[in-house]
Design a protein that fits this description.
Number of helices: 22
Largest sheet: 5 strands, parallel
Shape: elongated
Number of strands: 12
Strand content: 5-15%
Distance between the termini: 19 Å
């Protein structure tokens, strides 16, 4: 693998680096002699190929991307000097050692000026080669260590910048800041404060990326973030941020003509690109355009309201404030507004709520309203009810992962009674869900699972230990856990650890015994037995399969 002419390392782990080496010489006896002469593996080297002329040597270099090249100067088709120049220009990180005879010494000096590491005179001895390779390996390690340090510094700078920018946007959204402080904070975060228009767009996925297995939420979130960030930065449309677990865009522009259409078109491009690359649908809440960065709290509020209304409007859309369902022109409008208020007031009592539904049903029949008018009124009443539930607990939208098209559901019912029955069942489902989320058992179970997720690597993850942390008695703990999962705590921990182990086998180069330790097993053999029992294959077989 190669990226930007940087060389990758062979080997099983970070501490077992194998440097690749090739030998290019037109003399068979030299190539065979060097292969047999040097204990390559003992030096941490892998001889990955040889060639008997310069042209074949260049093809070999391009194919295997070695770290070290032993190269004869005098060869047919392409001599070592020409090949050295090509390699130095194309792959500057590769280390070249020239093999030369005494009568070619002047060429060797010229090659040193081209930047080769060293030269070695024929006949070649083992001690000379081993000593020279030791120096080159030390240099390679030093360069790689320096590169790691540089990447770490760059990453820390990037994280620091992202943190400053994130905090600045949060303060602009949630706090009242005077203009002088706004200018100071936006400058420190490298956010322009003098653009003509600003807005906030909020991006949320409608479903996870398929086939992830675990960490679906985090992986999907960051995949969306990466694509949105790349598009926004490349086109200079603003900057990205995170807020309340949702990806956000701080949009800004100096354009004036066709402003709203341009804004929506750009969001459409972002939305379509994410869908194309991740094979998921997303919904974007499009905030109001404002004239100053100090007013982006208004843009955020409208974007958040728009995103929440995905629940009523549907998924896979860009939603602006004007997309909300509105009451159309119908007779008896004032009276139906009163019924809307009565329905909301009755939401705390299922019996009273059902009575209000009955009264609405009777009133519609009494007025002999058209089917279209009945459907429109029910649409407004249901939307109002669901908005109220969302205000109580936004998580209620989890009941409808694929959203809900209210009017389609209403039109599928052939009688007013069928509509009323569906509305009541919807009300009961939402009420039960919110009560369940607030129940002590639900909270206790969430605390238990959170503790396991954060501490699964501890070998002694016993019921007693968890009970002490979540402040429950062992008997009550067992009751809560059995009711929530239908299984035992030990099996739950085992399942979680095995899933984490699968992740590590797939995405890291840790050895089996290291993974066992990282997921809480001190005995690698026991870990392997459990893994085989769980997945019908050994850890090694799983890694090969993936």
């Amino acid at each position: 693998m190669i990226s930007c002419n940087k060389l990758t390392l062979a080997g099983k782990g970070a501490d077992e680096t194998m440097y690749r080496i090739v030998l290019i010489d037109d003399e068979d006896v030299v190539r065979k002699g060097m292969r047999d002469l040097v204990p390559w593996e003992d030096l941490g080297l892998e001889m990955v190929g040889d060639a008997n002329d310069g042209e074949k040597g260049l093809e070999l270099i391009q194919r295997v991307m070695p770290h070290i090249i032993f190269l004869d100067i005098n060869m047919p088709k392409m001599d070592g000097m020409k090949l050295t120049k090509i390699v130095r220009e194309t792959y500057p990180d590769m280390k070249i050692v020239l093999i030369t005879g005494y009568d070619e010494f002047s060429y060797a000096r010229e090659a040193l000026r081209l930047g080769v590491e060293d030269y070695i005179l024929k006949p070649i001895t083992k001690d000379e080669v081993v000593t020279l390779l030791g120096k080159i390996i030390d240099k390679l390690k030093g360069e790689q260590e320096e590169e790691k340090k540089q990447k770490l510094i760059e990453e820390k700078i990037k994280q620091s910048y992202n943190l400053v920018r994130q905090r600045c946007i949060e303060q602009l959204i949630f706090n009242e800041i005077d203009e002088a402080l706004i200018i100071k904070k936006t400058r420190s975060a490298d956010i322009p404060f003098d653009k003509t228009y600003y807005s906030i767009a909020l991006i949320d996925y409608d479903h996870f990326i398929k086939g992830l297995g675990c960490n679906e939420n985090e992986i999907t979130f960051f995949a969306i973030q990466n694509i949105a960030d790349e598009i926004v930065k490349k086109n200079e449309w603003g900057t990205t941020f995170e807020i309340n677990g949702i990806n956000g865009i701080l949009y800004y522009t100096d354009e004036g003509q066709g402003l709203s259409d341009t804004y929506k078109t750009r969001l459409e491009y972002i939305k379509n690109t994410i869908t194309q690359y991740l094979d998921i649908t997303i919904t974007i809440g499009m905030g109001k355009l404002v004239h100053t960065i100090g007013d982006i709290h208004v843009a955020y509020k409208t974007a958040n309201e728009a995103l929440i209304n995905r629940f009523f409007i549907g998924t896979n859309k860009i939603i602006a404030t004007e997309s909300y369902p509105k009451l159309g022109h119908i007779s008896y409008e004032n009276e139906w507004l009163e019924w809307e208020e009565r329905l909301i007031s009755a939401m705390k009592d299922p019996k009273r709520f059902n009575e209000v539904l009955e009264e609405i049903d009777s009133k519609m029949e009494e007025f002999r309203m058209s089917i279209e008018s009945c459907q429109e009124i029910w649409h407004i009443l249901i939307s109002t009810m669901l908005k109220k539930f969302v205000q109580i607990d936004e998580r209620v939208t989890e009941l409808f992962p694929n959203s809900i098209n209210i009017m389609t559901e209403i039109k599928s019912k052939k009688t007013i009674e069928a509509i009323k029955s569906w509305v009541y069942n919807l009300y009961i489902d939402c009420t039960n869900y919110i009560e369940e989320q607030a129940s002590p058992n639900k909270i206790h179970f969430q605390n238990i699972t959170r503790f396991v997720e954060n501490n699964y690597h501890i070998p002694d993850l016993s019921v007693n230990r968890v009970c002490k942390e979540v402040h429950l008695s062992p008997s009550y703990f067992s009751s809560v856990f059995k009711k929530a999962t239908g299984g035992t705590f030990i099996q739950f921990v085992t399942d979680y650890r095995m899933e984490k182990a699968k992740e590590m086998l797939k995405y890291t180069s840790f050895k089996t015994y290291e993974i066992a330790e990282k997921v809480g097993y001190q005995d690698p053999q026991y870990f392997s037995t459990l893994f085989r029992k769980q997945f019908k294959m050994t850890p090694s077989e799983y890694r090969k399969k993936e």
